[in-house]
Amino acid sequence: MLYTLPFADSFPGINLFRYLTFRTGGAIMTSLLVSFLIGPAVIRWLKSKQRGSSNIREDVPEGHLVKAGTPTMGGVLILIALVLSTLLWADIKNHYVWIVLLVTVGFGAVGFTDDYLKLTKRNSKGLPGKMKLLAQFVISAVAALWFMSVTDEPVATGLAIPFLKDTLINLSWLFVPFALFVMIGASNSVNLTDGLDGLAIVPVMIAAGCFGFIAYLVGNTVYSSYLGIHYVEGSGELAVFCGAVLGAGLGFLWFNAPPAMVFMGDTGSLSLGGALGAIAIVTKHEIVLAIIGGLFVLETVSVIVQVASFKMTGKRVFAMAPLHHHFEKKGWKESTIVIRFWIIAAILALVGLATLKLR
After folding, report:
1. Residue 160 host element (H or E)
2. Long-range own/partner contacts, residues 170-179 (CB < 8 A, 24 or more apart)
3. C-alpha–C-alpha distance, residues 275 and 306, integer Å
4. Is-contact 219 182, C-beta < 8 A?
5. d(CA 253, CA 159)
6. 206: how many CB neighbours lie within 10 A of its CB?
7. Are the CB atoms for 167 and 231 separated by under 8 Å?
8. CA distance 71 to 54
9. pLDDT digit string, tens, across residues 281-297
10. Angle CA 44–106–270, to nearest 5
11. 222: in domain
């Protein structure tokens, strides 16, 4: 919004609103401040809506029972701070900003419905899985088609390969199901990771920081040409969105740090995961997302392996899935698991960023 001020070029200092880096920094600080200001009120509201203590899933280690009564749906706090900050600092005429916001808010609405059922009723299962998946499918399809309509070929339907300079595989009509897989897969992977206090939000912030940097490079003709990555006009504006994610994540972590005052819930995990998937599609770094978000991939794979092994052999590979629960069962303290997983996420993020130069 501030970017479109008609007098932004007329007064000294105000022209800073034209600079992407300045607006990204402004988005970080704004979303952080909004989180701090409204956080206590949001948590009080969530507690007032709580009915019983059934927000704790049944398929978790026994130690999680002590967290019963802690309100879920804290992703509302993230979404409010994120959306307000993005609308304030980003170019609201940019199609890519609205595409990513569509996925973020749309997936957040799905998660909100699920969390609301868990919060207000004695039902830890929430919204049926098939309904959640169908809603995600529709939202992702709209976003993918919108992206294709505003992006020139071959970028619109192309798949970039890391380590290969200026290489695009034309997916043609297969791009839509591929885009759906990326967005829905990223969304549910983050959701699976969100099982311990602070476990999911920090890797999300790390990934958002990386993709903010990637978006800045992809949206700049000079840097994209130098690095041999595909230029996507207007995609740099997503750096502002990523900055807002970073600030909102820090604000949420303030209240989610052990012992958590609020849980992210599906409202936060589904929306943030979907947002990362959408940004990866716009910036043509879908495969790099699997590297930077490798922790989310590991958590998802652990569930797939566990289910497949049990169905085929009747035996379990892990003590419990997702992977973080396995280590809980092995006697690791929650703080140990969380910090070590953060370290893994940081290492994988560095590996993912290295693909920008290794071409």
Report:
1. strand 158-160
2. 175/144, 175/148, 176/141, 176/144, 176/145, 176/148, 178/286, 179/140, 179/143, 179/144, 179/147, 179/281
3. 27
4. no
5. 34
6. 22
7. no
8. 10
9. 999 999 999 999 999 99
10. 70
11. yes
Taking only the tens place, the pLDDT of each residue in 205-238 is: 999 999 999 999 999 999 999 998 999 999 999 9
Integer-rounded Cα Rg, in Å, for the chain is 20
The number of domains in the chain is 1
What pLDDT, on a 0 to 100 scale, did the predictor assign at position 176?
A: 96
Q: Phi then psi for 301, rounded to 5 degrees? A: -60, -35
Quote the domain boundaries for residue 206: 20-354
Would you say residue 1 lies in a domain? no
Which one-letter amino acid corresponds to residue 308?
Answer: A
DSSP string for 265-303: HHHHHHHHHHHHHHHHHHTT-HHHHHHHTHHHHHHHHHH
Bond prior to 177 in cis (omega within 30° of 0): no
Asked if residue 15 belongs to a domain, the reply is no
* CA–CA distance, 314 with 305 (Å, rounded to integer): 12
Complete DSSP assignment for 189-232: HHHHHTTSTTTTHHHHHHHHHHHHHHHHHHT-HHHHHHHT----
Residue 172 placed within a domain: yes
> How many other C-beta atoms can be found within 10 angstroms of the C-beta atom of residue 287?
16
DSSP-assigned beta bridge partners for residue 159: 169
User: What is the value of pTM for the model shown?
Assistant: 0.92
Burial code (b: 16+ CB inside 10 Å, e: under 16) for 29-56 equals ebbbebbeebbeebbeebeeebeeebbb
Containing H/E element for 168?
strand 168-170
Please name the helix (run of DSSP H) or strand (run of DSSP E) that holds residue 21, with its range, or none: helix 20-49
Cβ atoms within 10 Å of 289's Cβ, excluding its own = 26
Helix locations, 62-128, DSSP H: 75-89, 95-120
Report residue 231 as tokens: 């230029």
